Each structure stands twice: as structure tokens, then as C-alpha cells.
Records
---
Amino acid sequence: MSTEVRVKICGITSLEDALMAAEAGANALGFVFAPSPRRVTPEQVREMVHHLPPFIIKVGVFVDSPLREVRKTLSFCSLHLAQLHGQEPPDFCQALFPHAIKSFRVRNAAFLERLPDYKAAAFLLEGHSDTGFGGTGTGFDWGLALRAKAHGRIILSGGLSPANVADAVGKVGPYAVDTSSGVESAPGRKDPAKVRAFIRAAREALVAKL
């Protein structure tokens, strides 16, 4: 078993928050290009990325954007990965592989049947919500995440916070954990104390399990 769980802080909207999360030990940062209180422009992200330290993975979050637009944005902003939260079909992910993460909103076990159809760097799992895609803070049955691990790397998301991430890591042992609203003081504004607590709890939980 790996001795480290990777941590992604999503919904970054300012350079201040980006640098803070990187300094706190985040492995990856997410920038939302879809309709959301955390939406940013490619121009904003390009400027933020220019100032980030090396070895931080930069992820663009998209919802049903055209493939050409996704590729253009990845290149323009110097991003490493596209995180796809819409109804993107398997061939869409295949065209971006290995630079795509496919998200699934989990309501029940039905999504497990779809995973083998997708070729992605990892699968991000979050709870199903009728109010939006990502950043809703909706959790789901972590037992389903355990079953999903048979199909590839799992990024656990949805409702994670400093209060429950250790339990999630201990029970699921995911490749990575992802949070947005769980470490905010307001939509799009990260709370430094919550970010540090989240990262510390995630990492200490996995070490304790070994």
C-alpha cells in the first residue's frame, strides 16, 4: 500500500488561495471552467499557473465542453489534466487519454457498470446532486468506492471535510481525495486553517492504517 494519499484542492479562484494550498502540501489544484460560484476564466488561470511552484498538478474542470475547447484551454493555461464532470462519452476520454479524469455522480451501484467503458487516468466519485456538477458537498456510500477500485484509480470526493476525510481514507484507501466546499469560508474562498487541517488529516489517516 502507498504511504501517501494525494490531495486535490478544487475550486481555486485566486492566486492567494492557490499559493496557500500549494504551501500547505496539496498535490493538485483544480480550476473550474463550468458554470459555478467558483468559475474562472482561462486568462485568470493562466496567470495563476504562471506563479505556482513546480510539481503541483494543475487540473481544469469541464462540463460537456467541446473537445476542441478542452484541448485549447489545457494548452493555453498549461494544465496537466482535464476533469470531466458532464455526460462525456468514452471516446471523449479516449481522445484525451492519459490527460483525463472522468467524474461520476454516484446515486447507487449502477455507475459501476459504466467504468469499464472508460479509459481515464482516474475516476472521481462524488455524490449525486440535482443542484449542480461538483462542489455541492454531497456525499455517498463509500462502500461503492471500494468496489470501484477494481476498475482503476479512485479519487474520492463529495462531502469531504477536515472532520471526515480521515475516516474516508481509512475505509476506502483511495488514490486521492478531493475537496472544494469542505475547506471554504465562502463559495470560492478557501479557509487556510481548513485546508491545512484537511491535508494533515488525510495524510495522517493513511499512515495510521499501515
---
Amino acid sequence: MVQFTPEATWQMNTKEFSKLLQNNAFNLASKRRRIHFYAPSFTYYKTAYFRSSDKIFPTISVTGKGCALKCKHCGGKVLETMRPAKTPEELYNLCAKLKANGAIGCLISGGCLPDGSVPLEKFTKAIRRVKTDFSLTIFTHVGIVNDEKALKLREAGVDIALIDVIGDDETIREVYNLKVTVRDYEDALRALSQSGLFFVPHVIVGLYYGRLKGELHALQMISKYKPSALVIIAFMPIRGTMMENVKPPEPLEIAKVLAAARIMFPKTPIALGCMRPKGKHRAETDVLAVKAGVDAIAFPSEEAIKYAEAQGYGISFSSHCCAQIHNDI
């Protein structure tokens, strides 16, 4: 086991950190000797190993294309890839169709209200009906929640709640256009934890214009609770947004966050999530992620799959969202 702290890892220069990665110093997950790969229906994915389906695990937006925040890194563009269901009846009917077409579950998300929450409260009865009638696995992306909202989601039968956790006030103001603080994110984590919901925090590397700022603090906040799993994602420029020309964080910077997370959460399943740069950048990031000790990768590059095999890992593929790693380990 690594004997130094996440803070020490954070302060390492590139040469020191690269050497530790090469020596598998962070690979605390190696005892499991298995990497889980996920390719849900959010994005088309095809390699020699696995091909995604657009029917198995789709994403639904309860606000359609609408979002009050218009974050600089997203601008609502991500919502355009989701299936709209803006009323409880539409949500139920859509889930009925999804089930008939072979779906095993879905991620229910949506744009945010001005307070940073996703308006899921009016959908909880419909979610309960969907769970009862169709036995679908339901993940929800919740935004900032309070005790009451978290309890309603648990009572609705939500399987896992996903929440992005931002550890820097300036990032919240400048990128999210949101008038809350890191305390509000910690309060949301507490509410989710106390509700009894399984919850999976997401930490976004490089959200502050491609630079590291607040990621370690986000991990420290999360460590006060007991997440079901932890997902690390990374800023990627999206065409048509205010940050489309911003350079994303380097693969080694993403790996540094993964390594710090691995030290802080030695027993918690950790995944490299779906949002991260593509192409050569992704291939390099994914191999580094395996070296940093992740348990799962969403939409993995072939380079990472081959590397994991070469290191003697067992591998498996699933059409679930990568937060499913909570149930797969």
C-alpha cells in the first residue's frame, strides 16, 4: 500500500509521479485483479471487444433541452443527447417503451434550476411506478439536494444517485454560473448519505478552464461520508460552448486525481467516467488510469483494454452506466 498522503501526491512533479505510476505504486485495486468496462447507450461505442447498444441503458432529461445555468463548459449541449420526458406521464410512457425495446435501465437527469438542483421531485411517483411495473434499474443525476429531496428519491426506489461535487467556490461561480458554495455541495453529500440512498459522487478534473483547482478539496469532502463508489471525469471541450477552445487537463493531471482518490478510498470502487477527452488523449489517460488503480472505465480505449489484459487482469464489459461498479464488485 502507498505510504504517502494524497497531499504529497498532489505536490509531486511530473517525473516523480510518472515513476510511481510506472511502478504501480498506486495500484491498490490490484488485489481484485479485474477491471470492469462500461459502454452504456449515451454514446456509440465499438471496438474489437464490445459494441454498445442505443437501447440498453439510455439517458433521459426531465427538462428536455432546458437548463437555467448555461454552464460555460456545457451550455446545455449535453442535454441535447438525452431523450426528453418533461412530465411524469411522459417519463412513465417513455420507460414503458424503453422496457419493451429491451432496456435494462436508464439514467434520469436534466438541466438545473437556478439553485443547482435538478427538478426531480414531481417525478418521484412516476419513478416508483416505473420500478414497480418494469423493474428497470434507475440512476438519477441529482444536482444539489436537501434532506427532503434525498428521502423522496430513496422512497421512489432510485437505485443510485449521482452527484457532481465541486471543491472550489470560484469554479462554481465562474464556470457553473451558480450562486452557491462548496458548503452546499457538502450539505448535499450529507443529505444523500443520511437518506440511505446509494450515491456515487463525480469529481470533474480541470473544470476551471482546464486547470486543477479544487479537485483535492472535493475528494476530502467526499471522504467524510461513505460513497457507494467514486467516479472521476475530466473537462473536455464541447463545440458550441464558451469553453470550446479551452485546453483540457493533461492525462497525467487526470491520473494524479485518480491516484489521490485511490489513496483516500482504498476500498471504494473507483471508475474513470464517460466524460473525458477522446482520441490520443483518451488512450493515454485510460492506460494511466489502470496504472493508478481504477476498478472501472467507461468507454475504454483499446489501448487500455490491451494493457489491462497484458497485466493479467480479468476484464468484463457491461451496457450499464459505470456507477454500476458499486454492484459489480
---
Amino acid sequence: MLEDKQNVIVTHAPYYDPFGGGHTLDEGSNEMLERYISQGNIDVFMSGHIHAYHEDVSHDTHRLITGGGGGSLVDGVHHHTHVTADGTGLTFEKVPIDTPEQNIFEIIVERGDEKVPITYERLLQLMEQEGVSGISSFENQFGNQRGEAYYWGVKISTVLEKVGGMDEKDTLIVSSIDGHSQNFGYLNVYPDDYFLSEQGEFILALTYNNQTIDGWSDGPRLVFMPDDGYYDNENCENTSYEGQGWNLYESAGARWVKYVKTLTVVEGER
């Protein structure tokens, strides 16, 4: 029956941020959605992106943000959401997820049969000896500049020395505690003049505005350090190998893997 139908909008990122972080769609999309929903024609608005859970009602629209499936949390607990549809509409149940303990104070570097654990303490020592530091930031898929901060860390090439580095036809796979991963080519790790001009040095950042990972929930983190302090989407496109990075997901920010757990060198032709 027509009266049983629900008008629902689903987006990845919301048009509002109840936590004050500004993690929304672009300004034009925010204004359009706000205007459209204020007309009272939408029953439910659902989104993710913000790592938290939030429900409210605006202009008779039931709004839901559910983004606690992985990653560091803005608020609350890791969760998924069970949605029930019946003749009265949609109802939501937040279901907490038990997350396993992870040792964030150790990363693993792998190549072939070689597997080397490196403690965070040892990485900090390397950072003190031959670290790279400076202001950097990235552009997300919505065209917003994010992550601007003072980063200090170790070149990825320095970390890979523990397993003999990588060759031109090798691929580097960097994975985080929650399973997110990104693939990189030789020139990302050992940049020539062109790659340096686009991406700068490629580092494993160990501090964020001088905070260590005791107080910085996104670290250790991959960071590109271009001279202008802004790794934008054009830089990302220009430094992504075929089948990697921008060619799979058009966001410079996706390359900045958070809470890095493993660096794996895959040998042979890409």
C-alpha cells in the first residue's frame, strides 16, 4: 500500500556532524540536503562515515548516523545496526561488536618468508636518529582538506630495510589493525624527483602534533609530506600506480592508512 512506503535517503557521509568535527559532505551537498529534508518529505535519513552512533529527529525526519564498524571511534562503541522494516516504518537497534585486543605498540614487516616485528620504542629511536617531520594534510573524496598537523616519523624505506627493502617490480601492501589496506609501488617508497614534487617523502608517522600513540588514536599512520603541506587528490592521482590508490578509490585520504599493523613486500612483477 502506498501509505506504507517510506521515503529514505542513504549517503556515505552525513550533511551534518552532531559531534562538531565537520566530517560531512561538501558544503553545496549539505545545503541541498538540509533544504530538501526541511520540506518534510523524507521519513528517514541514514549515513555512516562518522565513527559513532547518533539518532535524532529533524523536521519529522528520523536521522541515523552509524559508523562504528571499524576504525578509531569519535564516540561510543564499535557496533553494527540492525534495521527492521514493518508497516509502521523503520526501527534501528545498535548492536555492540566485541573487538579483539591488538598490540598497537608493535608493527610487522614482511617479505617472503621473513617476518620482522618492530616495537614502537624502536621506531621512536629510528625517528630520533633519522626522522622526517613537518606540516602535512590530505584531501578527502569530498574535496575537503583534513588531517592538517605536525607529523614526525620514519621513512617507509627505512622501515623496509629490516627485510631488505623492495625492488622496482615489487608491491608494498600496508594494512591496519581493522583490515583496511593500500597498495604502493616502488616510486612511492623510493621517490624520484617527480614523485617527490607530488607526494614528498613517504613516512610512517609516529607522532601527531607531538602526541605519541598513547594519546593519538590514529597512529602509527602513513603520511605523505609534500613541500606545500597538502597531499591533494591531484597529487594522489599522479602518484598512484595502475590498479592502486586513486585508480581504485578517488581519495588522497584513503592512502593515509591509520593504526598501521603490517607492511608486506610482495615480490615480482606487479
---
Amino acid sequence: MAAAANIKFIYLAGGCFWGVSEYFSRIPGIVSVTAGYANSKLDSPSYEQVKSQQADAAETVKVGYDPSKLTLTEILRAFFLIIDPLSVNRQGEDSGRSYRTGVYYTDLSEKPEIAKVFSEVERKLGKQPATELLPLENFFKAEEYHQDYLKKHPGGYCHVNFKNLQIFKEELEKAGHRFEKPWQI
């Protein structure tokens, strides 16, 4: 594992955080995933406050990654493989503002790199993504039962297509990546 000082973070809202968390946990170079609530209008909101839209927070995954193994661009490309970037306040069967998609950054110097990936997505789709691109205002860790939910409950509800991990792996291999550990696809 990389030294803690070398770990960077990006916050990704892709609908229900159970699947997004599990998807990223399977990618070599990702060192941590934490389910939580981003850009909340309430301090330390509960799941019930988020789901009922009281907090106006997005279910979000804090993704810790080793930039010597994966770039931010690569992580965002993996993210766009599992969301419908044109959908507003909905992913899979989940609907409401808490299920909106978004990329939330803490380092302003990363915004041009993130915007470049958004432009790639727009060119590919022929439309501007509905996915938010905003600075992170706040992030509150979700309740413990949400952490690693699909590891604890295999076969639980999930809108994420994990077959897209194979597509992402193949893209990385074409770019010359070699992996120290096998992928869990």
C-alpha cells in the first residue's frame, strides 16, 4: 500500500452508494472507499434525512487512490462507465436528489483535469452530462451498516453493472498498466 501522504481523494456520487463503493473497491490502485453524504445542508445528516431530501445531500463515495497507480482521469473514466450521466436525480431504480450524480473535488488544481473528462463524455454523448461538477462543501460518513454493504450482503440491490470492470481493466491494459494483484470482477 502507498504511504498515506501519497493518497489522494475524489468524491463520486453515482446513485446508491452501495454499488459505487463496491465497484471502486475492486480496482487495483484504489486504497479506500467510504460511503457517505456530500454537500449536505444539514450537519451530520442521517440516512433518513438524506433519503427524504431534507439534507439535499448526495449519496457519495469518498475514493482514496494512489496516484502512482491510477490517475484521476482514469478513475473518472471508470466512474462514467457505471452511471447514466444524462439522468437527472435518478440512477437505476433509485430516484430523488440524493441519487444525483456528481464529481466533487477538494483541490481546485484538479478541476481542469476533471473538466477534460466531462468534455470527453459530452463529445461521446453529444449532450452535456447532467452530472454535477462542484467543489466539495462537506462530507459526512454514512452509518456503519452502509460501509461495504455488498460485501456484507452479497446479492443485495445494486444498479451498477460490475461487468464494466472488465472493460475498464482492458482500457488500462491497452494504456500499458500492469497489475500487482488480480482483479475481482
